[in-house]
Structures are given as structure tokens and as C-alpha cells.
Amino acid sequence: MQPIIAAVIMIVCIILFLTEKVPILIVPLIGALLCGLTGLIPYSEVFTDFAGNTAILMISMSIVGAAMFQTGLAQKVAGFVTKLGGGSERSIILIAVVSATLLSGIFNGTSTFVTLCPIITAMCVANQVAVSRVYFALSYGVIFGSLLTLIGSSMGPISSGVLEEAGYAPLGFFEPALLGAPFAVCGIIYLLTIGRKFLPNTNAIPEKMVGGKEAKNATPMKLKISAVVLAAIVLTMVLQPENLPFYIIAATGAVVLVLTGCLTAKQFLDAIPWQTIFILGGMSAVGNAIESSGAGQIFADFVVSLFGGVSSPIILLAVVYLSTAVLTQFLSNSTSAIIMAPIGLLISQAVGAEARPFVMAAYAGSISSFCTPIATNVLTFIYEPGQYKWSHYLKMGIGMQLIYFVISMVLIPIIWPMDV
Question: Comparing C-alpha atoms, which of 113, 29, 58, 20 is closest to residue 390?
């Protein structure tokens, strides 16, 4: 019964998001409360993710981003980048997606996004380009980059661990790039051509993201302080001494920026993306309920069982990929990989095929998260400042999902042959 209840709650939340009959801020609360009241998750866990590690990281980096804007650092960097790459919409989209792709292959995706966002926003403001037509490119760039290295996302170590525990060789550090690089190249081309036609103009006000069009705390000293703090945050995240968590690093930087006067207390509070935090916290609770109730596993098992009599490896590869891609639109990327990578491994053993291509199909499917604002954190983050609707995500995401699927089905069997 619990899996059914969890699935119904998720479906109700999706319907409410799509119809917008209920204020967006309330929908995640409804989902989280229902999960608690129906016993799917303990009461103590209903609001845990509203102030979880991911939420703190997102809040802290939003504050850092606001400081970059308020001290004039974002505008200064944006002006320099604009001189190099131009200020047209196409140029800004290209700069946003390429820079996010390259950086997120090494750095945490959320940190990459929130660091680049004030710069890209400042470029849009200066050149009168609609931010809502650029934020998608920035978010997609982070997704593209997550498959360029094994540490580009948590799904890399998860997939590699599944292979290693089963006695196979682990994935190499740059091995995901054999698939990720074609994804990125084709995705960027799509964004600059056909996909650009679907980029929405919602007339979003960019200062909701950065706290105002004017840099209110712009002095040479404060600009230098914000630059040093930003550099220190990035460097510490790269080195991660003694496994210092990203959210602690970011929160420390945010506090320093307020103590040094780079942000006032009011600007500090205004920088927090409350709607994003509510969506992240509430829908994480629903996702946890889906996972703990076994609804996600039941869905995966059901889909796989439908093709139980199929012996064609390529069809089963497509099943693994598509099942994971559907799950990851509503569950976390890592949860989808945790569920589907072992299933992919079992399927490969059942048909006498190599395990690597099936695990890679689950890995790629877990990253193929384009169609909903809860599919991955960076898409959640742009929901409020971009003033998007769920339909915008679907229109933009369908084309990218198709590109990822076709590339996966063509390249995975070539790069990782299925014959034993």
C-alpha cells in the first residue's frame, strides 16, 4: 500500500505544479506533509531537507553570488567577458553553456551554477538580453559537464562502485567523457539552433536573483574582498582539506562577506531563493518517500519485467536507459542511479552480455534530467528567478532527452561492446 500512496502523492504534486491552481510555494509543503501524515517518512524527516546540506549550500552560494553583484565584481567580470565574446543573446548563451560545462566537470554543479549566475545575469542586464532565455543554457551546461569526469557528479562513483563490487574494472577518471563529450557538443549545438526557438521569455526581473540592478556596495576594497573570498571558496572546494564539506566552505564564505560589509543583513536575506528552497525541501521529502516505500524500485522492476522475454541486448539497453531517465525526472539523480545501475548489471548477466554498457546506460540515463524543475538542483534553482512554468521545462527538455537517448543508443555499444 505504501508504494501506491507515495506514487499518488507524487502524481498529485505534479498535477498541482502543472495546473498552478495552488500557489507554487504551497505544493511542496502539501507533498511533504502528506508523506509524514501517511507514515511514509517519520515526522522528524518531513522538513529535514528544507535546511539540509544541499539547501545550505544553495543558500550560501546565493549569498556569495549576491555579494559578487553588490560589490561590482560580477559586472566587472561580465564586462571583461562581453568584450571578449560579444554581448548578443547567442554569444551570452554560448558563454554560459560552455563555461558551465567545463567547470562542472571538476567542481560541484550547484557551486558552479551559483558562481556563474551573477556574472551571466550582469551580462544579460548590460546587454538587455532576457535572463529567462539564458538561465536554461547555464543549467544545461552544468548537466553536460557532469558526465565529463568521474567526479562530475555523484552518479559516477555510484556506477563505478557497482561495477567494482561485482568484480569488474572501475570506470576511469575521464572514461565518462567518451559519452559526455558528444552529449555536450550536440547539446550546445541544439541550444544555439533548434533549441533556441524554445527558450522562453518570461519577462523575469533579474534583480530577484542578484538583489538589484545597481551595485550598492561597490568600493575598490569590497570588490577585492569579494574576489578573494570567491577565489578562496573555489580553491578550498577543489582541494577539500580533510574532506571539508562544500556547504561548510560556502557558508563560511557567506558569513565572511557579511562581516566585511560586502553585504548588509537585508541584502543577505534578500539573496536567499526562498521558493527554490521550498521546492527543493518539499519535493526531496516526496522523493525520499518514493525511495523508502519501494515505489521507485517497483516501477523499475515492472518495466524490466515487461521485457523479460526479450533477448536482444540493444533493446534491453534502451529499457535500462529509458527507465532511469523517467525515474530521474522525479527522484534525485543519485537515487535513480542507485536503483538502476545494479538492475542494468543483472540484466547484462542474464543475457550473457558485458556489464559495462548496461551500467553506463543507467549512468547516462540518471544524468538525462531535463523535463521537470525537480529533476536536478540546477533546474530547481532557476525556477523562481526565471519565472518559469513546468511547461517551459517540458518544451525545452524533450528535445534534449531525445538527443541524449539517440547518442546513447548509438555510442554506448560502440565504445563499450556488449559481446562478452
Answer: 20
Q: How far is CA 330 from each of CA 211, 238, 291, 333, 395, rounded to the nearest angstrom?
A: 30, 30, 11, 9, 17
- For the chain, what percentages of helix, strand and coil (3-state, to nearest 5) are there? 75, 0, 25
Q: What rounded mean pLDDT belongs to the chain? A: 88
How many CB atoms are closer than 10 A to CB 408? Answer: 26
Quick one: CA torsion of 337, 156, 283, 293, rounded to 10 degrees?
30
CB 95 within 8 A of CB 79: no
CA trace torsion 44, 50, 53, 58 (10° rounding):
180
Phi, psi (rounded to 5 degrees) for 243: 55, 35
How many CA atoms lie within 13 Å of 207's alpha carbon, on the beta-carbon side? 8
Q: What is the distance between the alpha carbons of residues 214 and 104, in angstroms, rounded to a whole number?
A: 29
pTM summary value: 0.83
Residue with cell 499518488: 8
Reference 183, options 157, 161, 152, 159; nearest CA is 152
Query: Distance between CA 325 and CA 329 in Å, rounded?
Result: 7
Give CA separation, 41 vs 15, 37, 233, 375, in Å: 22, 8, 35, 21
Q: pLDDT digit string (tens) for 207-219?
A: 545 544 556 777 8
The yes-or-no verdict on residue 185 having pLDDT over 70 is yes
CA distance 320 to 234: 36
- Can you tell me the distance from the alpha carbon of 227 to that of 216, in angstroms, rounded to the nearest whole number? 16
Grid coordinates standing for 176?
565518462
Q: Write out pLDDT tens, residues 291-341.
A: 788 887 787 778 777 776 677 889 999 999 999 999 899 888 888 888 888
With a CB cutoff of 8 Å and minimum separation 6, the contacts of 15 are: none
Distance of alpha carbon 134 from alpha carbon 199, whole angstroms: 8
| Burial of 221 from C-beta contacts in 10 A (0-12 / 13-18 / 19+) | exposed
How long, in residues, is the chain? 420
* Residue from 407, 415, 321 nearest 369 by CA: 321
Positive or negative, the CA dihedral 109, 111, 112, 113 is: positive
Residue 142 pLDDT: 94
- The answer to whether 365 and 321 are in contact (CB under 8 A) is yes
What sign results for the dihedral spanned by CA atoms 53, 55, 58, 61?
negative
